[in-house]
Amino acid sequence: MYIESIELKDFRNYESLLLPLDKGVNILYGDNAQGKTNVLEALYVGCTSKSHRSVKDREMIRFSMDEAHIKLNLRKKDVPYRIDMHIKKNKSKGIALNGVPIRRASQLFGLANLVFFSPEDLSIIKNGPSERRRFMDMELCQLDRLYIHDLIAYNRVLMQRNKLLKELSFREDYRDMLEVYDDQLISYGEKLIRVRSGFIEKLNEIISEIHSHITGGREQLSIRYEKNTEQDSFRKNLEKVREQELKQRISLVGPHRDDLCFQINGTDIRHFGSQGQQRTAALSLKLSEIRIVEELTGDMPVLLLDDVLSELDRSRQNLLLDSIKNIQAVITCTGLDDFINNRFHIDKIFKVQNGTVTGEN
Q1: Which ranges of the chain does DSSP label H, i.e. alpha helix?
Q2: Would you say the pTM of this structure is higher than 0.85?
Q3: How confident is the model at residue 361 (pLDDT cuts 50, 70, 90)?
Q4: DSSP assignment of 23-44, as one string?
Q5: Which range marks the domain in which residue 323 is found?
Q6: Cα–Cα dist 73/81, whole Å
């Protein structure tokens, strides 16, 4: 699949923008704080309904305006699709697919597969567990529609259960309701654990090969899925922490507390790896995302690279650039030197300056 064009109105610093994209490599260059990343964010929001920045909708609307609009035209297996999205300050998004309103934003997932790579992703290994869970969830939501349903349902039950735990401090008669929420939490949680397990197993097959290639065979990278609880012991573990949950007033068991452990030659690099090892592992993770989407969907994702090349040395730049042949890529950078030095083929170049995008070829 590839994105043919994006149109913006009152999104971030863009009053209006119509940007046609090539199905190959598109470069957006310019100084910092001119709006390059905002274009990538709009592409991501338009395809997934969520920002990669974990921000509220109103923050994406241009100052003093009440709404922002995103229109995407994309083509998948030679079939055209149009996504129209209205982002509102105090209401949920309005979304239409080919002119027909859709009820839930989750219906967009699976239509377009994106891999977003920013400098912040280079820290995913050493940052907190929530970021690694978000990585799993965002990838699986694009690959598995049932997972989206189960994740939404699980988070809803989790929120209701946490609310009940807080109310039990002054309404002891509500205690029997905990068992009802336990049943639902276990039902949806077991499904999440099962799908995550299969995903990490598949990811390990791919990432070990990629990382070995990047490091010249010196390092073996593996990912261990650190489940907060096993499926068959979920209920037993909930019962074990019942009194502790009542004291802390929060749910302590379930996949919302899962984590991923990245190991190089058997060493946990979250805590004991060098910065270079952590950044290389993050690069391997992103390259693995591209491969896993292709293998599981039979289609190539769109790659969004946000000023990543400046964070990598020359050899890793070459590896990354070599990996994006035959794939649509939208890449931001402050200058074109890295591409010229690497003799990298570029299909379209755009200059971004103060919310204005100008084509240069």
Answers
A1: 36-48, 129-143, 145-167, 177-214, 234-240, 242-248, 269-272, 275-297, 314-323, 337-341
A2: yes
A3: low
A4: SSEEEEE-STTSSHHHHHHHHH
A5: 1-113+300-361
A6: 6
- What residue type is 24 in one-letter code? G
Mean pLDDT of 215-226: 94
55 pLDDT above the threshold of 70: yes
Contact 342, 330 (CB under 8 A): no
Q: What is the CATH number of the domain that holds 90?
A: 3.40.50.300
Per the CB < 8 A criterion, the answer to whether 196 and 140 are in contact is yes
326's torsion region: left (phi>0), alpha (psi -120 to 50) or beta? left
What secondary structure does DSSP assign to 94-119, as a single string? Answer: EEEETTEE-S-GGGGBTTB-EEEE-G
Tens digit of pLDDT for each residue in 75-109? 998 999 999 999 999 888 999 999 999 988 888 88
In a domain, 350, yes or no: yes
In total, how many domains does the chain have?
Answer: 1
In a domain, 65, yes or no: yes
Q: How many CA atoms lie within 13 A of 279 on its CB side?
A: 15
Q: pLDDT for 300-310, tens place per residue?
A: 999 999 998 88
Answer whether residue 311 shows pLDDT above 80.
Answer: yes
State phi, psi for 317 to the nearest 5 degrees.
-60, -45
Nearest to 185 by CA among 230, 234, 226: 234
Which residues, at least 6 apart from 201, have a Cβ–Cβ distance to it below 8 Å? none
Residue type, 357: V
Asked whether residue 125 is domain-assigned, the answer is no
Task: Give a yes or no: residue 90 inside a domain.
Answer: yes
Non-local (6+) Cβ contacts of 286 within 8 A are 115, 117, 121
